[in-house]
Task: inverse folding
């Protein structure tokens, strides 16, 4: 019975996300800019969590904490992405997708961009469903998961703030960011995101939701191989001449002290988003 109820909530959450995707798609067609889908990622995750909470017959003792963490994470990320993209037009990544899928890209983007994002967000949010439904208090594993979740949110936020501050200086336009957290990882914001979802999974696993490991595994693949590190580093060396030297001395993902043997370029910085 519990499994049936949980999957009813999951199905409802998926339907809500698909509706949100369609509404945002309609706005993107009017604006001729599918980049707004990036700002939708955080709200989709939070919306899933709230849908699970509102449709479940009862929630566990960790429900308030889980919803609070998911909502704060989503709010910060949405603010950051929206502020970063505001007034810049369609992102070059989506321009490339548009060029590859003409003619009729406005219609194709409904499923290639917005529908796909809704399904991915639904899968990633599954630990929230399990964590909210858990009826037992969080044990050591769950508490460690909460700590990792908070750490990842703060780490990601600091990395994004450092990068935004660096890029706000016109003198840094062609330079590579190797300051702050970016000195120890070429993508510290993605590492923070990695910690968030493994932390959320530990919370879910501690109350019987270990099966939701598909969520952090999917996020790890996305961050490292698909839409994250791999995609962003395809051409960043062409746009930022000092990036090769920075890459030689800096860990690609997990924070680690820079290698001393590599030459250091003075005052250069990197962007996870180019």
Result:
């Amino acid at each position: 019975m519990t499994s049936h109820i949980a999957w009813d909530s999951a199905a409802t959450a998926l339907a809500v996300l698909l509706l949100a995707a369609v509404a945002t798609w309609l706005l993107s067609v009017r604006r001729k800019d599918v980049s707004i889908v990036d700002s939708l990622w955080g709200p989709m995750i939070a919306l899933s969590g709230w849908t699970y909470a509102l449709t479940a017959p009862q929630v566990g003792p960790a429900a308030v904490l889980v919803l609070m963490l998911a909502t704060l994470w989503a709010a910060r990320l949405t603010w950051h992405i929206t502020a970063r993209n505001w007034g810049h037009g369609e992102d070059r990544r989506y321009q490339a997708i548009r060029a590859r899928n003409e003619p009729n890209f406005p219609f194709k983007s409904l499923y290639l961009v917005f529908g796909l994002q809704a399904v991915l967000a639904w899968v990633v949010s599954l630990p929230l469903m399990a964590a909210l439904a858990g009826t037992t208090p969080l044990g050591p594993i769950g508490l460690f998961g909460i700590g990792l979740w908070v750490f990842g949110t703060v780490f990601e936020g600091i990395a994004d703030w450092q990068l935004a501050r660096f890029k706000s200086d016109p003198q840094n336009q062609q330079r590579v960011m190797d300051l702050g957290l970016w000195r120890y990882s070429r993508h510290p914001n993605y590492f923070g995101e990695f910690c968030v979802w493994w932390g959320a999974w530990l919370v879910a696993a501690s109350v019987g939701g270990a099966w939701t490991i598909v969520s952090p595994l999917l996020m790890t693949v996305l961050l490292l191989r698909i839409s994250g590190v791999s995609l962003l580093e395809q051409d960043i060396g062409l746009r930022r001449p000092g990036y090769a030297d920075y890459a030689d001395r800096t860990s690609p993902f997990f924070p680690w002290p820079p290698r001393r043997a590599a030459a250091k370029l003075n005052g250069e910085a990197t962007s996870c988003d180019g």
The chain has a mean pLDDT of 88. The longest helix spans residues 2-31. The radius of gyration is 20 Å. The chain has two domains: 1-135, 136-274.
